Fold this protein.
Amino acid sequence: MLDYRFQWRVVFKHWPELLDAAFLTLELTVLSVALGLMIGLVLSVWRRSDNRLLWWFTATWVALARNTPALLQIYLFYFGLGAVSIHMSSYAAVLAAITFNNAGYLTEILRGGMDAISPAQRNAAIGLGMRPVQVYVFVIIPQVLRIVFLPITNQIVWAMMGTSLGMIIGLQELTGMTTFLQSQTFRPFEFYLVAAVIYLIVAESILITARLTARYSFRW
Amino acid sequence: MNSFSPVFTQGDFILMLKGAGITFYLTLVSGLFGTILGFLIGWARTVKFAPLYYLLGLYIEVFRTVPLIIQFVLFNSGLAIFGLRIDPFTSGLISLSIYISAYVAEVVRSGIESVPPVTVKAARGLGMTYLQSFRFIVVPVGARSVLPAWTGLMLGLMKDTSLVAVLGATPPELLRASQIIITRIQEPLAILIGAGAFYFIMCHFITVVVNRYEKSWNEKTKVAA
């Protein structure tokens, strides 16, 4: 029935390249989440501010990031900005687009977390004589962190999957490298299966680390 | 007008409009099949049978953590290995359905578990069979609590349909259509912003429709105080 011979040796001959590419994927994931988290933190505070301009800026960012495909965002950074003479490498374009996308989603996650903390907590903390910084550091942020922890974990995995779009604009992260290698060896199934397993392992290690962290940090 | 013109024509607009239609069609069909499949999987996971729970859990983990592009290509080349020939459009549609079913399964499970066990016990105590209590108590109550999450998934699905272009699926959906136009008229920024506007409007449309439906749904079932 199956007149197809699987050939795995050729895949493992290219193992070093795949591993390098996997590290590039991981690097992009970590960078885009770290940058996205920083921007998201600022935006989520702006979203709650009274300044209309900041509010609109944030609302627009979140709406654009969440309502258009990540691939379109990558195209915009890579091809679109080229029209106004801003030329990005495919690495920079993927990083910028996934960061933009992450920031939009993370802003909503963080805002949701902050909204979930009742104002009474804040008042009580102030009533105990805490300064505003102390209120945030000791009362609000620990609770927000607990609420947003799992959604953020999902976002990290999502960002990892998002970086695979780099393949389309010629970035050789894991998917791009796999595509390149299979085009040389004509073994698409074997290569993509190995790539899928690598993605699964990377994602599982992110998820397991997160679950363990959550179990030991949020025990009260 | 000659057939090659480096400006945006009415035909281009129609191509993008048709592309938006294809995007919508892909979302609708794979959303429907994915929801049915995901519902069954999520339901099966609430049955207290450990092997089934973990096996389906593995299914969910795999389809939620492997990038969609890889799923597309693997599915397509996997079919070729088994000697099945399916056109890229259909194969993309099936991959999308399977992909989204993994997400739907988790949402469905959390919806079923959101119904308090006491409520279910009360229903059983009134003489309902398991299926009756599921059909008349668990599903209506659970569905209300997960409707927003499900909508979010469908919006995500719409954006993910842009990836079927990787398989070279024809007819072109919105983003692929835009790319074809860009290749000819070399105006990436304007066309991409236009495509973004299309996606934005479609997402907004779905959100508004679901919100309205949700509101009328909640009104209808409001208990007279």
Q: What stands out?
A: The two ends of chain B are 69 Å apart (CA to CA). The interface with chain A takes residues 61-62, 64-71, 73-74, 77-78, 80-83, 155, 159-160, 162-163, 166, 175, 179, 182, 187-190, 192-193, 195-196, 199-200, 203-204 of chain B (CB under 8 Å). The CA atoms of residues 68 and 160 of chain B lie 8 Å apart.
